[in-house]
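Query protein
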Amino acid sequence: MIGLFKIFDSHVHFYSNAYFRFLVKQKTNRLDINTELKNLAAKGHLEIPGEDPVALAKKWIEVIDKWKIERMMLFGSIPGDEDSVVKAVQAFPTRLTGMFTVDPNSNVLMENAEKRLKQDKLRGILLYPSMYQISVQDSWLDPLFQLCEEVRAIVFTQFGKLTIRSRDYAGIPVVVNEEFSNPKDLIPVAKKYSRIRFVVPHFGAGRFEETLELGKECSNVYVDTAGSNSWMTDHPSKPDLRQVLQKTLQVFGAGRIIFGSDSGMFPRGYRYDIVDNQTKLAQEMRIPLPDAKKIFYENMASLIDGPQ
């Protein structure tokens, strides 16, 4: 607990050893894997963790104990790295919850999703429509959404600006199709699958007005507050976080906003500056304490555990 707030961080990337190995294997004309890992670590000033994901999970627990964070949602941030997250969550089930990134174009999409959501008990999926060049409205995704609805899985869907630092450090460009980066594309999907809880990270990552429109139309869509929200710098209206949060509260209400730090890589580790800034902002804005508790803990806990 930080001051008056318990914290359930909804947005933490679990950058395992396997994650980095899967990443550098995507390079064309690559060197051997270990050399690529050394180069990536040097360029990004990163620590590549050891091969045991449970050891990495233990390190995360030690870090969040230091900062008094109660719970975290871990993202498996590349297709293929689901096992790392599964093992981490199984080691610390009361503190860690897991989700995984799907490759919507994979021919084993449903086979893998069934295994991860039903057998391994991961609690949701991450979709990157612009990076995987597919609309959220594509009928190919209907079986996936039907599965998510069946098992009460959360669907994080990244729209707007997409920045993946680890890919930059590895020398693998992020190629996106802006045609699929509009949050409003989710409106018919969220209405069709009304029992799914969708989450749009980073207030829409630069597509803020469109995210507000989505929130007005669909009561089963949430936003997260994750990270520094650097998209504000490039936005035409140049809003600050206070203005963004105020407008979001007006549309979504406190019951559909969830806190996230966008933590991930070591040695930086947990981004305590994000939680510190956002809890202080909530107090400065005089957000009623019951509403602030929803944003920082209760909303995410409800999505995972059921209504409190």
